[in-house]
Structure formats: structure tokens, C-alpha cells
# Entry
Amino acid sequence: MKRWIWWAFTVWIWGACRTPVPQAFSETSAPLFGVVIHGGAGTIRDLPPRVEEAYRKALNRARDSAYEVLARGGSAVDAVETAIRLMEDDPLFNAGRGSVRDAYGEVRMDASIMDGRTLNAGAVANVRFIRHPISAARLVMDSCRHVCLTCEGAEQFARERGLEMMSPDYFDTGALEMPEGFTKYGTVGCVALDKDGNLAAGTSTGGLSGKKYGRVGDSPVIGAGTYADNRTCAVSATGTGEYFIRTAAAHRVSALMAYAGKSLDEALRASIDSVGTLGGDGGFIGIDRRGRVSWYFNTAGMFRAYRLSDGRQKTAMYGLEQD
Ligand code: ASP
# Structure
């Protein structure tokens, strides 16, 4: 009798050991990571093939460089800075080297960056000479107790921290002539989700062409042109900045997700609709904490691209109906 019980117990243990134990989701599937970039919104339609090809190449290069940073295990903040630095060096975009001129014939640039993990942020506004304003914004975020530095003070800060400074003739090269009726918007932005589930966003611009009186747009204003919060999303805007400031457009996206239960897609649309209701135009790119990407704009087009770790990727520039 005793032997029979012992035999039954052994069989039960053997069976229990063979029953597959369900694996936790994080052990069996790689975390999703990815990047979305924009190169400005505006009257972008029917570009000559030569111009279209140049933008496509530039967008893919910036996007893929940021993606490589993420694939190597780099942070979302590093990926955002990498993509934006490349676009700041490219005269095709209204940021860094290709920045438009203000009413006094000068280049005056704005940039910001935000870390969704800590809600740390850094920005520079109205700066000249700095080759990579996004790196100046990053330095403000990482090594300064303030969030936004402006004008000569920001330039001095960048110089003291060893950032590359350029002479005025480095900027605004006019390298590629644009077709008639083409307004150069070309502000650049990037949002990213890294393997650790951290979000980041950044934006850089030369601002509106012909701007006066030390005008500052939405790009360096945290919550207007840039916002990132690990609990919701990371977004970067482009368009007529005054309307994005008045509607706190970037923070509005995050708030609609956090407090009204909207998806990223719904929140981007609602925020651009608020901008549009006041008479503003432009667009957003975004990525949420699960790696869902979205973009939305009320202009004819927006230069944009994304790439995700599950293999999905896209580069586009014209109207949303072509998506
Ligand atoms: N939003 C930028 C600004 O108002 C311009 C742009 O996105 O083209 O400065």
C-alpha cells in the first residue's frame, strides 16, 4: 500500500514538472523601441523630383542614425539629439545651418529637449553662432539649474561648455533653390522610445522667416513645441509657433491622454484642431509609451519619417490622404 502511494506521488511530481510554465511577456518578446522625426510642415506639394529625393535621403539618414543609437541600447535622449544634430547640419532644413533670416538679416535659433523619465528639460532661444542648438539645450538640461537660456547668455554658456561656435556666413547657405510658392518651414524635431521604455522629445528651428523684436516661437517652450512624459507620450511640433504657445499644444496632447483617456492619435488631432480654430497651422509627430506612433497636420504636407524595432518604417512628405 505504502509503495503504491509513493509511486503515485512520483508520477504526479513528474507530470507537474513537465507542464509548461507560462513565460512573462517581457521574457519572451523584445521591448518595442523606435523613433519618429519631422522636418517641418507647410505648403509641401509637387516638389521637383530632385528636391523630393534630397529630402527623402536627409530624413532617412537622420531617422536611421537615431534608430541605430536605440538599437545599440542608447537612451531616447541620445537618439533625439543625434537625429536633430544631423538635420541642423543640413541646409535643407530651417534649423542650425539652414536657418532662415530674421527681419534684420540675422540667424536666430531656438531649440529644446525633454526627458520623459525625469521631466527634465533644457532650451535655448534666440541664439546665434551655435552650430548645434539642440546640444546646447541638452547641456542646459544636464548641467544647469535653469530650463531656458536666451541670447548672449545662452551663447556664452555654450562657448564656456566647449560647444562648436560658427561665424555668421556658415548659416543660411541657400544651397538648394526651392520651387516657386514653396514656403520654407523646415523646423526639425524628433521623438523616441528606447529599450528601457523611456521617452524623449526635441525640436530645433530658425523660427519664422522675417521675425522681429527678438521673437521666440514655440520650439524652445516646453509644453508648446516639445513635451515628453513616460506616462503618456513624447511629441514635437512645427508650424506657426504663436498658436502652439497659446494653446499649450504639446502639453495638451499629453494631458488629453492622461486625464481624458484619449489615444495618442486622438490627442494629436484635438490639439492641432485647437491650433487651427485660432487660425494657426502646423503639425505634430508623436510616440506613446507603448511605441505607437502618430503624426497629424493641418498644412498641405509635413516632412516626416518613422522606424520601429518590429520592422515597420515609413518616410512621407505630402498630404495625409496619401498615407
Ligand atoms: N514653430 C516654429 C516657430 O514658430 C516654426 C516652424 O515650425 O516652422 O518658430
Notes: The pocket of aspartic acid is lined by residues 40, 94, 185, 187, 205, 207-208, 217-219, 225, 238-241 (CB under 6 Å). Residues 272 and 283 are 7 Å apart (CA to CA). DSSP finds nine helices and twelve strands in the chain. Residues 49-71 form the longest helix (23 residues).
